[in-house]
Specification:
M1 Pyruvate Kinase, Domain 3, two-stranded antiparallel sheet, 5 helices, globular
C-alpha cells in the first residue's frame, strides 16, 4: 500500500507531501529516465527512526506481500494505483545525507529507483502489487553497469557520456578508473577521459 506520496519541483529540492499525484511516463523527473520515481519501504524509515520525506523519496510503500522491496530483482514491475513502474537499481546513499544519517548505514536501503512505464494517477492508500511485466535487469554496481553497457555498445565513449547513459552522476568520473581496474571483462580503452582526449588531439 502507498503510505506516503511526495512531489518535488526539481532534483535536490525538498519534497512536499500530497494525497495524489499523476505519474507520467513521458515527463522528465530527474536527469535519467531510469530514475523517474524513488520508492522507499516503510521499514527503512522505521529501522533508522526517520520521518517520511527525509530521504527525498517519491513514494513510501508498506510491507509488500511480505517481500523485501530491496530484494526484488531489477526489471521487476510494480502496479501503483493506475501506474506501473519498472524497478531499475538501488539508490546509492550520498554525502548530502551526512547531517541526517551516515550514508554507510543506508547501504542497499536508500530506496529503489524506477522508470514509469505506464502513466496513471496514484493516491495515498492505493494498493501496491507485483505486475507480470518484466524488463532486462540493470546492474546496481558501477563497474557491473559499465560492463553491461559496453557489452551492448562496444565503441569509444567519453566517461561523462557513459555515466549519463547508465544513470550515474558526473561526480563518479574520478571513481571509474578504480572501479574497473581489476575487471578483465571491461575494455578500458573504450572509455575516454578529457585529459587523454586532449592529448590525442594535440599529438595529431
Amino acid at each position: 500500500m502507498i503510505q506516503h506520496l511526495f512531489e518535488k519541483l526539481s532534483s535536490g529540492q525538498a519534497v512536499k507531501e500530497v494525497r495524489q499525484r499523476y505519474l507520467s511516463a513521458t515527463e522528465k523527473y530527474d536527469f535519467h529516465p531510469w530514475r523517474q520515481c524513488l520508492l522507499l519501504p516503510q521499514y527503512t524509515l522505521d529501522q533508522h527512526q526517520l520521518q517520511p520525506g527525509q530521504l527525498k523519496e517519491d513514494i513510501v510503500v508498506s510491507n509488500l506481500l511480505d517481500i523485501n522491496l530491496h530484494q526484488l530483482p531489477s526489471g521487476s514491475c510494480l502496479q501503483l494505483g493506475e501506474a506501473i513502474v519498472r524497478l531499475t537499481f538501488h539508490c546509492d546513499p550520498c554525502y548530502k545525507l551526512q547531517p541526517l544519517i551516515s550514508p554507510k548505514r543506508l547501504k542497499n536501503q536508500r530506496g529503489y529507483h524506477s522508470q514509469i512505464v505506464q502513466s496513471g494517477m496514484v493516491r495515498q492508500g492505493d494498493k501496491v502489487t507485483l505486475s507480470p511485466q518484466k524488463y532486462d535487469a540493470i546492474p546496481h554496481r558501477l563497474a557491473d553497469r559499465i560492463q553491461w553497457y559496453l557489452q551492448r555498445h562496444p565503441e569509444p565513449i567519453l566517461v561523462q557520456t557513459l555515466l549519463a547513459r547508465i544513470g550515474f552522476s558526473h561526480r563518479y568520473c574520478r571513481a571509474v578508473p578504480n572501479a574497473i581496474r581489476h575487471r578483465n571483462d571491461i575494455n578500458a580503452e573504450l572509455i575516454l577521459y578529457k585529459s587523454r582526449l586532449s592529448h590525442s588531439i594535440t599529438s595529431s
